[in-house]
Amino acid sequence: LQNAKGETVPCYSANYEPVQEKCYLYGKRSRSDRHTAHLAVDSNYIFADKFCVETKKDCSAETPYIVYPFKQMHKKIITSYPGMNSVVACVAACIDSKKCKAVTYKIGLCILHGASPATDSGLLVDGSEQTMVIENGCQLTASTLPALLSNMLESLDNTTDMNACLFSTPEILVNPCTA
Predict the structure, then answer these.
(1) Which end of the chain has fewer CB within 10 Å, C or N?
(2) pLDDT category, 102, cuts 50, 70, 90?
(3) Helix/strand/coil (H, E, C) string of the chain?
């Protein structure tokens, strides 16, 4: 990613539009200083975001953390953290919990779950504009992840070349680096 001066800058997020085969990359300046952003589910676009998580557990920096905006889970609750105002802190708490496979997050509340929508999509229920479910990518197995990504791609045109971008469908693929 290069800025107007031709200087290389790191990519922080991307939008991919498969029909037009366009990938839009965004640097740090495109981010807001606010801790939250309103996301719109748009099946025409695939969104990827990058953020860093400090955890005790060693996870690959390339591990995908799939996000289901406007969804929540009510089953297999391990614990909850009222007053947690950071989605990154919520994901970190899940990564550091041996049994956590996904979280339901909204501002001020983080709920850790011992089950994953990757293995049971029936766990997801409609939420509000403030809720989201995030998979614990460290818990996804080598057999689960390819099947999960394959299921997401079924709705896309098979002729679409997506090698240049990260992908998912209306879900959001988050690719954090762990520190």
Answers:
(1) C
(2) very high
(3) CECCCCCECCCCEEEEECCCCEEEEECHHHCCCCCCCCCCCCCCCEEEECCEECCCCCCCCCCCEEEEECEECCCCEEEEEECCCCHHHHHHHHHHCCCCCEEEEECCEEEEECCCCCCCHHHCEECCCCCEEEECHHHCCCCHHHHHHHHHHCCCCCCCCCCCCCCCCCCEEECCEEC
